[in-house]
Specification:
This is TonB-dependent receptor. The protein is built from 6 helices and 56 strands. It is mainly β.
């Protein structure tokens, strides 16, 4: 029935490729590299969404979160802000601490790793989405031809290569929230065989999250980045080509602050949260208003990468390609993780005047160090060939990746403190046993090696079979010096190992670690190291049948794999194993051209058998435990994911173009293992530190960030005007996303709110802020977005283009993720969507 529903609606991706002049071509002309070689989109047995640079510009796609808005099956985890959102495809989510489930590739190379305190955007952040040939979103496991982990899929960013034309453009944009953006690209053929392309992208915009306090920045979720790209193409001989791309991006913003939307009246912190919610309401605080307590709030990251590709056409039937890269990722992240402003009315203590609020838990960096500081090296040697009769095409190769720390990643996380200046240790502890500044010193190493081969054999002119296999060896090592700074005497810091079980300091059930003066710190006492290793085969087998040149039918079986990991912070959850998925797909791709109508219709059905899935869980510490609460990764057991994806497009008389995309996604966690029973008792020496372990999914329920329905409809009208006037067009995109769970940690309280136990009322379990309609805080509501654009290209025959864009036209208000502090800290916070954005753009082209 669902498949029939999908077939009954003309649905598609919102984009098609463009020719050199930017005019839309039919789907037969869309060239993709989903199988590491150039092919027509309609000939590739993979569900793919494709966007060119014109689509990206018209839709004002700046970062990964924007890209996901237009792509069915693609979701993002924006827990650490829209600029650092990580991808999820078909329910395969990257949680904090895990390697990505969706690989992002720029010019055939993965992004530099960012193993810090937050997810890093993994290569599709700001500064990446300009001067591109196209963006390809591949859905389903791609673990045969692509390195690293691609259980969910892959996102390919294909930059424009230097060409033989002297040309370029300058583009400027201005919009609300004082948005200013300038792009410039220059292509110079220094000779027939040596060509250079240089591009720069600079953007600034004020934040749309307003700070109600006078602490730190006045707004958050701002944009401030610069990106530069240099490409050099050297055709050394007719058969030998060398292509180098150098990328640089620096972003420096205020970061993000969550919105407190409810509190737990049964928590010891409930009264503080109630006071905050009432205070924000008293000053007219609305949806995009928050209370910040971090005077040093900042989110800065720098990434750069050099990619060199050498291609040798050894013969008519053999091509040898070598791809080597080096890149670095560095990050400083300072922000409140819960969004709390826990106000103390009198603002004093027996020890003198203090700041009138409690810091629950803040993310920071130790002075002089970064949250992330890593380098990544990759090397791939690839052979591509075909048989003399042309029936067999094949490729094989080897892959190596090594990520190393450039120094210690040092977090600085105040917890339950009043601080005049935490970086000068001027703090007063609320709890002698828990109030502290966590300062873990960490180093991570990643290594991945693989061998692969894949070939397609044409059994007949209409029937082909493809088979490929890859074997991958992964390892992740972690050095950890876990120190904590305590304040048993106010403003007098002392330190000890904040994870005594990890450091062997629990002897006969007693913590033998001692608090010591702040200087010097003996890191040897708190040192620990662990390594997670995993190796697995992955493969793909598919059968492709083309009854005509315009119809492709395919069936495939793909095995995907994601490496295990290590985080020694939380025993016994310091190691987790690899996950694997078997994906079965049936699909069809159809192109049509009939009179004034042309377009395509693509349909894919898939079933995923998902085992040992890596799921994030919230850890709730026992009263008096030596460890604070936190999050950890567990292997869930078994899940299943099935659904359909429909992509289609129709153009009528080259005047009206209708595109759409639809995904039905049905996910279910079938088994959950490795989760201990609740132990709601005070901690005793020798016992587990954890009272509860709460996964983000529940058995029988859907997986996180997996909306059941996702629909994108785009209409573009090319207005008939004389050629001397230019080219006029208007476009509109409607995006519907069904409700989806971000977490199940608040289910118990929500159940009691809906069905209060005898003698209680709903408000005895959850109290909501006025701006938040009562609903499960972990359930993101269904959303409807409308975006518009208008374009006037080649104005009166000149090389000048002008455009207008508006996103979230109706100014919808909705959360995009949840923090999960309800059980631990007495409040629940959510990350917020972007409000209405609009602007104008002027582009001047020059050259050939």
């Amino acid at each position: 029935m669902l498949a029939a529903t999908g077939m009954g609606v003309v649905l598609s991706t919102p984009a098609m490729a463009q020719d050199a002049e930017g005019e839309a071509l039919d789907s037969n002309a869309i060239i993709v590299t989903a199988r590491r070689t150039e092919e027509r989109l309609q000939d590739v047995p993979i569900s793919i969404s494709v966007y060119n640079q014109e689509d990206i510009s018209k839709r004002n796609i700046v970062n990964s979160a924007d890209l996901a808005t237009y792509t069915p099956s693609l979701s993002v985890n924006s827990k650490f802000g829209p600029e650092k959102a990580s991808f999820s495809i078909r329910g395969f989510v990257q949680d904090l601490g895990t390697v990505p489930s969706v690989g992002v590739y720029f010019a055939d190379v993965v992004a530099p790793r960012g193993g810090g305190a937050t997810t890093s955007g993994e290569g599709a952040g700001v500064g990446s989405l300009f001067d591109l040939q196209n963006v390809q979103v591949l859905k389903g496991p791609q673990g045969t031809l692509f390195g690293r982990n691609t259980t969910g899929g892959a996102v390919l960013l294909v930059p424009k290569k230097p060409s033989g034309l002297l040309e370029g453009y300058v583009e400027g944009s201005y919009g609300n929230y004082d948005m200013r953006r300038v792009q410039a690209v220059l292509n110079v053929p220094l000779s027939d065989t040596f060509k250079v392309r240089l591009g720069v992208d600079r953007m600034k915009r004020d934040g749309y999250i307003n700070n109600l306090t006078d602490i730190g920045p006045s707004n958050f979720n701002d944009t401030d980045y610069i990106a530069a790209r240099l490409s050099i193409l050297a055709e050394i001989t007719p058969d030998l080509e060398n292509y180098t791309v150098a990328n640089y991006t620096r972003s420096d913003t205020n970061g993000t602050v969550p919105k407190v939307i409810a509190y737990n009246p049964n928590s010891g912190f409930g009264s503080f949260a109630a006071r905050q919610i009432a205070g924000e309401a008293s000053v007219g605080g609305g949806w995009w208003d928050v209370s910040n307590t971090d005077a040093y709030a900042r989110n800065k990251f720098t990434t750069w990468q050099i990619i060199n590709t050498t291609t040798w056409q050894a013969s008519d039937n053999l091509t040898v390609k070598n791809i080597v890269s080096y890149g670095q990722f560095q990050e400083i992240a300072r922000q409140t993780l819960e969004g709390e402003y826990y106000f103390i009315p009198d603002g004093t203590s027996p020890y003198g005047t203090i700041n009138p609020f409690i810091n629950l838990i803040h993310l920071g960096n130790f002075p002089g160090f970064r949250n992330a500081d890593e380098e990544t090296i990759t090397e791939e040697l690839q052979f591509q060939g075909r048989s003399s009769d042309g029936r067999l095409t094949w490729q094989a190769g080897g892959y190596f990746e090594q990520a190393n720390p450039l120094g210690y990643n040092v977090q600085f996380t105040p917890f339950l403190l009043n601080c005049v200046d935490p970086y000068q240790y001027q703090c007063f502890g609320i709890s002698p046993t828990s109030s502290s500044i966590s300062t873990p010193w960490q180093k991570r190493w990643y290594r991945s090696r693989a061998l692969y081969a894949q070939g397609t054999y044409n059994l007949t002119d209409q029937l082909a079979v493809t088979a490929g296999a890859r074997y991958t060896w992964d390892s992740q090592s972690y050095e950890y010096d876990g120190t904590g700074i305590f304040f048993e005497t106010p403003f007098v810091p002392s330190w000890y190992c904040n994870n005594p079980a990890l450091n062997g300091l629990i002897v006969d059930g007693v913590n033998t670690g001692q608090k010591k003066p702040i200087a010097p710190m003996d890191f040897e006492e708190c040192y620990a190291k662990d390594t997670a290793k995993s190796d697995k085969p992955t493969w793909t087998i598919d059968l492709e049948y083309k009854p005509t040149n315009d119809i492709l039918l395919f069936a495939k079986w793909t095995r995907g794999y994601r490496a295990g990991g290590v985080n020694p912070t939380y025993i016994p959850f310091n190691l987790w194993g690899p996950e694997k998925v078997d994906t079965y797909e049936l699909g069809t791709k159809t192109s049509f051209f009939a009179g004034m109508f042309k377009g395509y219709f693509n349909l894919t059905g898939f079933y995923n058998d998902f085992r040992d899935q890596q799921i994030q869980a919230t850890l709730v510490a026992k009263q008096g435990a030596p460890l604070l609460g936190g999050t950890a990764i567990i292997n869930a057991g078994k899940s299943r994911i099935w659904g359909i994806e429909v992509d289609a497009s129709v153009t009528i008389a080259d005047i009206l173009k209708l595109d759409a995309g639809y995904t039905y996604l049905n996910t279910k966690l079938q088994e959950l293992s490795g989760v201990p029973e609740d132990e709601l008792v005070p901690w005793e020496p020798g016992a587990s530190s954890w009272a509860r372990v709460v996964p983000t999914a529940v058995v029988g329920g859907p997986l996180s960030l997996s909306p059941k329905h996702r629909l994108t409809l785009t209409g573009t009208l090319n207005i008939p005007v004389p050629e001397s006037v230019g080219k006029l067009s208007v476009g509109a995109t409607f995006v519907y996303t069904a409700k989806q769970y971000a977490s199940r940690a608040d289910d118990g309280a929500w159940e009691n709110y809906q069905n209060p136990p005898a003698g209680t009322t709903p408000e005895d379990w959850i109290v909501f802020a006025d701006v938040m309609p009562p609903r499960n805080p972990g359930l993101m509501p269904a959303t409807n977005l409308l975006n518009l654009n208008a374009n006037w290209d080649s104005i009166f025959g000149s090389p000048v283009d002008a455009s207008f864009f508006m996103t979230n036209v109706t100014n919808e208000k909705f959360p995009v993720n949840v923090v999960n502090g309800f059980n631990s800290f007495g409040l629940e916070s959510q990350l917020l969507n972007a409000p209405r954005m609009y602007g104008v753009r002027l582009k001047v082209r020059f050259g050939s």
